[in-house]
Amino acid sequence: MAEEFSDQLFVDYVVKAIVNHPDDVRTERIVDERGVLISLHTNPEDMGYVIGRSGQTARSIRTLLRIVGAKNDARVTLKIIEPEGSTHVRREDREAAAAKEEGGETEEEVVEEVAADDDDIDTSTVDDLTI
Hints:
By secondary structure, this protein is of the alpha+beta class. It has helices at residues 6-18, 47-51, 56-71, 91-102, 107-119, 124-127, and strands at 26-32, 35-41, 76-81.
């Protein structure tokens, strides 16, 4: 088996603990000039557990992963690969479908509105984060 690093082991451990199909969890680690990229592959049925409500679980894993990387003086990023057939429905798609059913806004208007909401997120706290 390929050499595993603490950041990769951390992701494996946490994700396997929260999904229903831990044997299907696979990570790949790539190092380049920008830092470390860990790609996470899971069973399609487990995407909801990995992402969490409003992305909270994924955000938490990424935050903790940054701390693990900081211990090793590395910038670590987690990329969650959405598998074919996953049961996770993107928020934009869900909201567009709901709006279409109500006969209100068109799908394009809903997607534009959601994109505008994303621009209003305050990231000033992490913009100056030094690791």
